[in-house]
Please model this.
Amino acid sequence: MATERRGKTAVLVTAMVSILMLGSACDRGGKQAGQAANLVEVAAGLPVGDLWRQDFAFADMDGDGERDLITAPPRKSKEPWPHIFLHRQDRWEPAPCDELVHRGFPREYGYGGITVADFDADGKPDIALAIHEVGIRLLKNRGQGPCGPWEEETLPREIQSFHSRAIVAADMNGDRRADIVVLSEAPPLNDGRDAPGIAILWNEPGGWRLQSILGSEGLFGDDVAVGEVNGDGVPDIAIGSLSDSRPQFLWLSDGKGGWQAANATGLPEFMIAWSVQLADVDNDGKDELIMGVGGAPVRKNGGPRVYRWDGEKWTSLSQGLPQVSWVCGVTATDLDRDGKKEIIAATMYTGEVRVYGQLPDGTWGERVSLKVPGEEKQRNYKVRAFVPNDSQVPIVVANYAGEGTGRIIAWRWQ
Ligand SMILES: [Ca+2]
Ligand SMILES: [Ca+2]
Ligand SMILES: [Ca+2]
Ligand SMILES: [Ca+2]
Model:
């Protein structure tokens, strides 16, 4: 009896798997049934050799309607300015700016964070940088196309020297002007001062205005994201706190122009997050907090993690994700276009990249595990994805840097 039941279950499972594979094969258009989808490298034209930390962004830099890749200046490079790689069907094309001094950028920069938005609404994307140990810089395009020339715009003096390498552009108050959110990098050494924490640079008709978020003093980290977690219509801020005594990963509007950290109820102790994203993984219209949690293996709190905020506490939606401390970059996107997001996680120093999918019981299962050759000694910093207009097939990008070399790599889900 038991054997027969197992037999029937096995047949049923096999049938279901076949149907699922057939379904996704149709969706992919032309793929043989039974052939598992995978991350296929599409890195032709992307750079190898420099230290490609810390950050990159996607924006249409040449006006052809397709988003391109813009990197932060690589560290210790001979070309320390942003780099633009135009996205073509199966490859990337470095923006053709060789003839220009600094490729059209006004000067050399250190490495750091980058974000792109059309801050002045002139139809051309602008670039904001958060340069390590220097501060925030805003670059406007004074020409046409990716070679600019780019020119620095003056920002309030306090923000110019705001030490950060985590920056994101988002309209924080619904006036259709893109604002900027920044997070302090490591606290200042020796002088006893706290890092300023989180700040919003408001893009107002009369100029830029700096708001330091009260209560965030001393917070620091390498990643910041904006999304909608509590459904109040005011964008929320997620930060990758690297202080294991400050698990203040989510900041919500208090409705009076101030911001408050969500409490840590439901989160494990001693968490630090190398990277952070806000994405709706359970499709209830509100974003979940997705983190690349690192730290000591003894804490058993690391790995790609997903948490849902209900207004009072956090609930872990991480069941099935590995509890490891190797993870750095994480992102969530619907790779197979079945309406449910997958999680993509990259390792810190082993070159591994893994994809986890949502199973019918709400847990996560590993879909793909691949190894980037030669990346064992390099650290991953970020993993991000975007969906090109022409193919609708998601592209995943990751950046790597070790002591003497690094690279940017991209994959397509197919
Ligand atoms: Ca483009
Ligand atoms: Ca705004
Ligand atoms: Ca909100
Ligand atoms: Ca949700």
Remarks:
- The mean pLDDT is 90.
- The radius of gyration is 22 Å.
- The helical segments are 2-28, 157-160.
